[in-house]
Amino acid sequence: MLEKNINSRLSGFAGYGLDDLKKANLMNRVDSKFMFPVSWLPNMLQQLTGHYRVLDINGCRVSTYKNQYLDTPEMKFYFDHHNGKLNRYKVRQRNYTDTQTSFLEVKHKTNQRRTHKTRVCLDNLQGSRQPADFVSSAVGIDYSKMVVTQHSGYNRIALANEDSAERLTIDFNLWYSSNGQKKLHLNSLCIAELKQAKSTKNSPFFSLREVPHMTQTGFSKYCIGCALLYGDEIKVNRFKPVLRKLSEQRIH
């Protein structure tokens, strides 16, 4: 029933394609993140209709993402975030299931708290930089010394407003695994991420009527996944407020 309601609300949006965005591409941006119950998603979408367009790929408006995150054996990228260091990185291989494409991506959180994302397509590397060179150059760590520390995936609704040069992604049906097999699910949770050229409250998203239990948060999907998967082995102090909220959700 929930999936049907979500698709019904999405049918009211104008669509856009992968090559349509100009001002709202935002590979260099400021991020604001929010978490709220997935049960409220249809209501939110109804309020946002007319303010955003939705990514439409061959008639599909809910995309499926699968990720493999890489880190050092000592989990440097995780601990840089846990310890509040700016000028930090995340490295992942992302599979865009609906377009059957894969990218190796590096996210850089700068000293100015901006997010800068670079990536290289893994489907056709002819004439492109090799993955090892791309990652090693971006983060200053030998790619061959990195290991896969996490598998994850989710469904995503990607909204865009070019007039305000912003994107809004809404992720749900989030899951984590340490080895790609047994999965830990966060099925009752949504993560909304507002991506702007510069931080401003002048956004259709902030005009939403009160959303029950919606909290602005520093939710890092990679770090929260590590805290859930390896919490008995690593420090998680920085993420305890989010983990406490998650404990109120159904995790299985």
From TrEMBL:
Domain VTC: 28-123, 153-230
Pfam families for this protein: VTC
Superkingdom of origin organism: Bacteria
GO terms for biological process, alphabetical: polyphosphate biosynthetic process
Designated name of the protein: VTC domain-containing protein
Species for this entry: Reinekea marinisedimentorum
